[in-house]
Structures are given as structure tokens and as C-alpha cells.
Automatic annotation (TrEMBL):
One of its GO terms (biological process) is telomere capping. One of its GO terms (cellular component) is nuclear telomere cap complex. It comes from Schistosoma mansoni. It comes from the Eukaryota. PANTHER family: PROTECTION OF TELOMERES 1 (PTHR14513), PROTECTION OF TELOMERES PROTEIN 1 (PTHR14513:SF0). Keywords: Chromosome, DNA-binding, Nucleus, Telomere. This is Protection of telomeres protein 1. Transmembrane segments: none annotated.
Amino acid sequence: MLTVSYAATSHSYINLIKNPGDIIIMHRLVIKQYNGRNQGCGYGATGFSAAVFSGVRLDPLTPFKSNTRCTFGDEELRVIERLREWYISPSCPVERENIQISSEQGGNEVNRTITSGIKRLDLLNGEEYCTIEGQIISIYNSVEIDNRIVLYIWDGPQSNNKQSTVFIGLPQDHLLQLLPYSQHDPHLAALTGHNLQQWNENIVKNYETYAEEDLDKVLESNFSSNSMETFRDWSVPISIYDEYAISEPIVNIKPGDLIRIHNVHVSCSRQKNDHSCGLQLRLHGNGHKFGRGIKYLGNKCLLMNYLNDTLFTSGDDANILDEANRYGLLDSLKRGINLRPPLLKPKCELLPYELQYPLTISQIRNIPVIVNEKQRQLSDWDLLYPIQTEFAPSIPPDSWLTCTDLLISESYLNVVYTRLCARVVDIAPLDVKALKDCLLLTCSNCSFSIRGSSISDDDEALCECGSCLSILPLFFLHLEDPSGNLILTVTGHNVISLINSLVDDDLRPCINNDTWWTGLIFEMKELQNIGISPDKIVLEQCRRLLGQWIDVAVKISWSKKSIPGTTNTENDNDLQFHINDWDFV
């Protein structure tokens, strides 16, 4: 590398240089020593002259217009061609992006022509600068701590040939610290498995501990190379620094928005106690001269309209769609959505307006406090027990529905409905003993009920009225998203819907047969035929639930006896969460 200085009479050559990457030919350059280093000096008195060429590979081999004259020949032009090729090659260590910047460009909103195209996230390599695009899953605001915002984005499914790629984001303790200042799209977080990477890896490594020894052969097939795709985290973190973190468009973007980020620095980094190399993505500050920047491509509705083949009536809308899908982003996101459908999904046309969009688990846990606060406003409780009810991020006011038409058996409860998207990280039952505990034998006539594990051989008459008994399955799902976790109770026909989403077509008639479920509780006493035993079928499907995600309407209930506004939302004994099927409401 050589530093070149110009005399006052030669400053006009500097004005010819427009962008990083431009190429300059210099004649009669004087080489001197300064502080032990070589330095080039251009003096007009010695006949110094120069010509500046564009560094863009496809531009003409003609210099920028100048009032001075500099001669050059075919050999110099061949050198310029080689330098242009080298500048866009991976061997060039200089921070650059192969772009042409529009003369109308201004601010942080990027308006440029990309000659090198977009690079997919799963094809990134260490030590390069490139342009990426994707849909925002989560936003972690860390400006007050280290002057940055961390975005988690995805651009579609990761290709199978890059399964070992690891992207390094924020440490888990830092993520927890930023949770109050984070925003998430629950649907995208569940679909991509965002922030569940550590659980995903552990569940795959230790899955044998979740089943009895005689079930290993039945369950092991569920972790084939194809189904392992379910456990991969598709979210990719990128740190946005300095002026980009506090200016447009970052300050107004939301989870679900589509963005394009120019000149991202991809570096290779090793984590502590780990010999493998992970990739870190950063958008550094002070980078306008390098063409850095963020371009807003559209909101989530744009993608939804594309998925639903909605026709765009105006030319502006069509142009926005074309720009967002210019490099196939919408097509790639569509493939990812189709590859990972939820196991359960409500019929949106049956849902009330308040349940059209899901909340995070943290927001759902705080709904009872807000409901209780409204009750406090009608009483004097606020004077006796003042509480703070401001949450960050805030909870949209029209995102849950209060139930006022309660059964007599529920009159002592507060009940609301909302919508939840989350991943299943654990489930009960997962073994035969737990399955017996999760099957209730009930009588609709006399309200008699007994757990399957409590039935003995001498139980000749299980209820006094002698009516027809039926089975009530009672399953528990441990759900998790980036903001927290909860235990969701699934009963009756919702259990059947859950199992039906997993079993083969030839088994669905059995699952939908009440007699099959009633007989199941008695067949568990004899396990001679493990391969076809109904309890084994049920446990196999339960095991397949791990790592999957669901999109469901949820019924939240808690006792009215608690002091309004002081409900302990971390206590699952106080808060109860149940799947609610609007087909049966």
C-alpha cells in the first residue's frame, strides 16, 4: 500500500475520484521516504499527470472528464481490467460492494443498482462484504448499552448442504437482559425456531431419555435426516451499529417487515470452549462512502398478499411487489412457509377480530394484569394495592377477547381468549405410566371420572348409574417462544386433532373412534403386542410433537378471588391455559 499526496496545483485530480474502487493512472509520480515509509508525491512542476477510471467492471474503459491530459496505452487499459476483476474477487481484502450509487441518493435510504446481486444467508462465507435481504423476525434494542440494534431475519429455508453453518448472535444472558426492549413476530419466531437453537441441539442429542427402553425402536425413526430439518433454527442475527441504529428506516421498522441491507460485513469468529467457527454479521457505522445502508421493501401484508395471489390494482403497488421480489425473496419465503406448516392452525374466518393476530407468551402472561387493572378502576383496590401496569413492549388493546357468558361452573373465574404461536419443547405423556395418568374415564350422566392409572382389576362397576363411559384425553404441552414459556392444557377433541395431524391416513379412523379410545385404557394392562398396541401408537405421536409448532386460540382463566391487579402471572397454579376450538364455541 502506498500513500500518495498531491501538491496544491494537483488537487483537481482528487475531485475526479468519485467512489471507493475507482482506478487512477499516475505519470511522473515522485517516490520519497517519510518516517521510514514510502510515499508518492505528485508535483505539477515535475510534469505529474493522472487519469481516473470507474472501478465498476462493466463501465467503459474511458477516463472521467478532466481539464488536464494524461496519456495511456493498451497495457494500462489491461491493468485497469485486471484491477476491476480483482476488486470484486474474494481475494480483495478491501471493504467494498460492487455497486453504482445514484446521484440522487441521500441519507440512509439506499437507492442503488446492485451488479453483483443478493447473497443468500446460508451461502455466506467468512471475511466478505455483501448485500443481503430478508424478513425481520425479532428486534433487540441495545442502543443504550452498546449503541446497536440486533435484528434476527430469515430469507427462506436453509439448504441441506450448509447444515453446519452457525451464526453467532447475542449471548443468552444478554438476550434475557434485552427482552423488555425486544419485539417479536410470534408466527415467524415459531416457524423459524428463533432463539430455540440451544434447546433444538439438546433435544436431538438426548432424545433417548424421553422414552422407555422398549419404545426406542419405535421413536428413533422420527429423527431421520429428513425430520431433523424441523429442529434447525432458520433465524440469522445481524448487528446494526451507530447512525444506522438510530435513523430511518430502522427506527420505524417492525417484525414482519422486509428489508435489504447493503455492504454487510461477514466475519468468522470462534466461541469460547468451541473449536468450530461461526459467522457474525455486522453493519458498521460511518459507512456512507462504502455504500452501506438499509432499504425498506415492504411490510408483512405485502408477503401475505403475494402468498394469497392478491391482485395489485395500482401501478405503485405492483412496483413495490416487483422490487421486493427482484431477487426472489418472496418466492424463497413462500417455500419456507410451505415447508414448515403448523401442526394446528385455526380457521381464521371463524376467529373474532381480536384473535386475528397472535401475541408473544410474555404479552399473554400479562393480559390478566391488564384485565384486573380495569376492574381496579371500578373499585378502591388501587388505593390499597397500587401496582405498575406498563409493559415494554406494549400489548395491543384489541388483541384479546373477554368472555362474559360463562357457565355456572366457571362463574368464579376471569376468562379471556387470545391467540398463540409457539414451539412444543416438552409434552406429557411420554411414557406408558404418564399416559395412564393423562386418560380420564368419565361418565357424562353422573359426572363420574377416574384416572386410567387408578383403575384396578376388581373395578366391576366404575360408576353407580351404569351409563356408557368414555375417555377424556388430557395432554400438557410445554410451549416456548423468545419471550417466555407456559404449559398449555389440551383436552378431548383437541387431543384427537393434535394426534390426527401426525398419524398416517390408515390410522385416522382409529383415532377418531370413541370406542378405540375407551378400549385403549383397558388394553394398557396387557402389553404383549408392543408393535401394534394402541398406547404405543399414541406415545409415538406424542414424541413426534417435540420441536413442532402450533398456531392456536387460547383460553386463559384465573380466579376472581385474587386481589385485582396482583395476580402472580408466573404461577401456573393461578393461570390456566387451554386450547380453544372456535368450531365448538
